Amino acid sequence: VAPIPLVAIGGLNPDRLDGVFEAGANSAAVVTDITLSFDSEARTREWIEKTDRWR
User: Fold this and answer.
1) CA dihedral sign, ordered 22, 7, 10, 13
2) 49, 7, 9: which is closest to 31 by C-alpha?
3) Is 13 within the bounds of a domain?
4) Which of 8, 15, 29, 43 has CB 3.0 to 4.6 Å from 37, enough for a Cys bridge?
5) pLDDT per residue of the chain (55 residues) written in tens, 0 to 9
C-alpha cells in the first residue's frame, strides 16, 4: 500500500507555507488567497516562487 499524501487546504497564504510543509504536508491547495487578491496574476506568481523549493 502506498503512503497517503497529505494536502493542506484552508486559510493558506505564502507566509504560512513554511509551517505547512514543516508539519508534514506534501502539497498545498489554494483558491481564496489568489481569487480575492487585488492582482491575482501577481499573487499566483508569488505562490509559484514561494513553493519552488518543494517542487
Assistant:
1) positive
2) 9
3) yes
4) 43
5) 678 999 999 999 999 999 999 999 999 999 999 999 999 999 999 999 999 988 8
Cell 519552488 identifies what position?
52
CB atoms within 10 A of CB 43: 18
CA 30 to chain centre: 6
Q: Which residues make Cβ contacts (< 8 Å) with residue 26, sequence separation at least 6?
A: 5, 6, 7
Does some domain include residue 27? Answer: yes
